Amino acid sequence: MIELIERPPLTVVLANPRGFCAGVERAIQIVERALEKYGPPVYVRHEIVHNTQVVERLKALGAVFVEEVEACPSDRPLIFSAHGAPKAARAEALRREMVFLDATCPLVSKVHLDSERHFAAGREILLIGHAGHPEVVGTIGQLPPGAISLIETADDARAFTPRDPLNLAFVTQTTLSLDDTAEIVAVLKARFPAIAGPHKKDICYATTNRQEAVKQIAPACDLVLVVGSPASSNSVRLVEVAKRTGARDARLIETAACLAGMRLEGVRRMGLTSGASAPEGLVGGVLDALRRRFDVVVEEIAAARETVVFKLPRLLTERPA
Known about the structure:
The longest helix has 17 residues, at about 20-40. α9 links the parallel β9 (about 225) and β10. The chain has 3 domains: about 10-20 and about 205-300, Cobalt-precorrin-4 Transmethylase, domain 1 (3-Layer(aba) Sandwich), CATH 3.40.1010; about 20-105, 3-Layer(aba) Sandwich (Rossmann fold); about 105-190, 4-hydroxy-3-methylbut-2-enyl diphosphate reductase, catalytic domain (Cobalt-precorrin-4 Transmethylase, domain 1). By secondary structure, it is α/β, with parallel strands linked by helices. The chain has 11 helices and 12 strands. The protein has helices spanning about 20-40, 50-60, 85-95, 105-120, 135-140, 155-160, 180-190, 205-215, 235-245, 280-295, 315, and strands at about 10-15, 40-45, 65, 80, 100, 125-130, 150, 170, 225, 250-255, 270-275, 295-300. It has a 5-stranded parallel beta sheet, sandwiched between helices. It has a 4-stranded parallel beta sheet with strand order 3-2-4-5. It has a 3-stranded parallel beta sheet with strand order 7-6-8, with helices on both faces. Helix content is about 40%, strand content about 20%.
């Protein structure tokens, strides 16, 4: 006689939008199209996006990931990651006469252009972001050393001493927490009323939308799971946002395998989302794993509808002569 094991009920609230943003989609397509056009190997400076599963799949297709241009043979194509790269990296590729493609997210490129505009106007520039993140390294590397000062916290903003308080500007990393950034900007504007800011907000639409969706689901959830890499700034920020806005707990997981051994007693309503570089298949894998342990009912909320698409580089779309 087969004994039926009763599974406890679990409501899973899916946040929408979640997963790939337009910049990530574009970056991955650039690697895939380059492999089709040039054949393997194609070299990529830094992880194309911060997701192990994406990187491993592209490796299997023939992509080779390196940290510096010097590690690439000059006769093979090179791709700069979605996070952007310092100008010195592009200069080295040009010096070596390499074929290279720029997968920098257009919204990150906007921050680069704003920084150059402020520099040309003679302003001292503050970059709100996290030290060591490749996007921050790339933005600082657009200008000469010392042109950009990094501000990580509101305390940094309070302690900063400018060369000229009447001649300042700020830009921000695109994947930050809206709330944390707003606090830092408020401190800077209170101290330096003349500070110039972006014409439009630097934090990208996808980061904003995913954080707003988490804010909607978090207050009623016992636990919010964010599928994403620990190296993914926007994924880490989603965990922080969930905790700050009312979830009893929030955790970052890379794949469904992270659920093994995770104690979920007492969890009856769970939020589920994913960072902007996490494939949707990983979310499906988490749902499948939960269904093996619970009697799952899925609800979905929609905080925004995304229709943004970024064009691929002309080198990959132009027809042969």
